[in-house]
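Following the same procedure, sequence and fold were stored together, as reproduced here.

>
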Amino acid sequence: MNKWVLSLSLFPPSFSFLWTVGVQFFEGLLNGKLGVAKTYLYEICPPKFHSLAFSIIGTPSSVAHFVGPVLGGFLACPATRFPMFDRPVFKQFPYLLPCAVVACLQLALLIVGCIFLGESLDKNSKPRDDYISLTEMSDHEVAEEEKVKPHRE
């Protein structure tokens, strides 16, 4: 989430196409939130709600793809549309206001997430049975597993 704050701070003062493409490339390079979100949902949701949680996870992104351009278009070029923003900085950088609003919103969401989202796994608890263990199995355990699960031929 903090990559948005950084990229939205670097995007408005771009004077060249190369700078704009570089900022967008940097933003895409740091985009890895979906895998983390799905892992967190898997750990905090009971198994019977996994299908519901994983089906809802794309909804905020869809809403953002609709609301973002509407908000950005409304706040773009504030020096010519709103008399209170008739400042030289908004004349020179017409997309500074929408990017600043979204960056502040993302920063607020980051702070709220850090405060209210708890740790998903208890440090003192044993690993759950449905997790895959990466420890090596002894020969005795391998032999027992092969008895239980016959090979398909």
